[in-house]
Amino acid sequence: MPKRLHLKRYRQIVRVFARNGFGILFEQLGLFSYLRIRNREGRRDDQQEEARTSVGERLRLSCEELGPTFVKIGQVLSTRPDILTPEVTAELSKLQDAVNPFPFADVKCVIEQEFSEPLEDIFASFEEKPLASASLSQVHEAVLHTGDSVAVKVQRPEISECIQVDLDILRDLANFLDNHTKYSETYDFPMMIDELDRTIKAELDFRREGENADRFRENLQKKSDVVVPDVRWIYTTERV
User: Fold this and answer.
1) Are 211 and 203 within 8 A, CB to CB?
2) Alpha-carbon gap, residue 203 to 222, rounded angstroms
3) Which of 12, 62, 87, 202 gets the highest tally of CB atoms within 10 A of its CB?
4) How far apart, in whole angstroms, are the C-alpha atoms of residue 186 and residue 198?
């Protein structure tokens, strides 16, 4: 059995995929028995679901239903034609990053945790309504005490912990498939999850994004028609 701490989320993930037409596959893999899921609550009829939608669409719908972590995972997988078919990667590329914004109180809390000082000591003004909200973060307009206007990207509270739980679950599933199914003869499931882990965690460190922006700006500095914003490093952390 998987870790007790993750069991509720693990069962939720399996049930969502089952409702979207992957129930027979999971039953064949032995996942219902592995997780002690009885009666497959809420499961749709797989044959009707398969007739209504493609595998790629059902996979996309599952990712959307499971929330920001799986939206990001689906987006990463959409760039991996070595793992999935072109039809599936094309469908996963439709996953939209736009999600409901998180409250300004949480934004303020994250910023103050990262800098260990009040928000008003860092910014002269800060727009409470975000410019955009995505699966991992959202962006706000603000003005520094120097008078410079900036765009502030703030990571969703606890998103790192949520992603870690889902990655732990996927790693457990990968080990299960590797040890109990014939698919391990073709695919190295643990290695796939390791690569997914590295890719997503790199996106969770905004300092890396800042470094990439600096390199991008340096490479394009001779192109007058392209403008890359400066990164204010004294206001940049892992989560802001």
Assistant:
1) no
2) 28
3) 62
4) 22
Residue 4's pLDDT is what? 59
Q: Which residues pair with 143 in a beta bridge?
A: 125, 149
Q: Answer yes or no: is pLDDT of 92 > 60.
A: yes
Query: Which amino acid would we find at residue 61?
Result: L
Query: For residues 3 and 7, what is the distance between their CA atoms, to the nearest angstrom?
Result: 6
Q: What's the pTM value of the predicted model, to 2 decimals?
A: 0.81
23 CB burial (10 A radius; 0-12, 13-18, 19+) = buried
The 8-class DSSP code of residue 20 comes to I
- The beta-carbon contacts of 29-33 under 8 Å, at least 24 apart in sequence, are 29/176, 29/177, 29/180, 29/181, 30/180, 31/173, 31/176
Per-residue tokens: 3: 């870790």
DSSP string, 94-142: T-----PPPPHHHHHHHHHHHHSS-HHHHEEEE-SS-SEE-SSEEEEEE
Q: What does the pLDDT look like over 166-188, one tens digit per residue?
A: 999 999 888 888 887 777 777 88
Instruction: Supply the pLDDT for residue 42.
Output: 44
**To the nearest 10°, the Cα dihedral for 81, 85, 86, 88?**
-110
In the chain, helix, strand, coil percent, each to 5?
60, 10, 35
Question: How many Å apart are CA 130 and CA 126, to the nearest integer?
Answer: 10
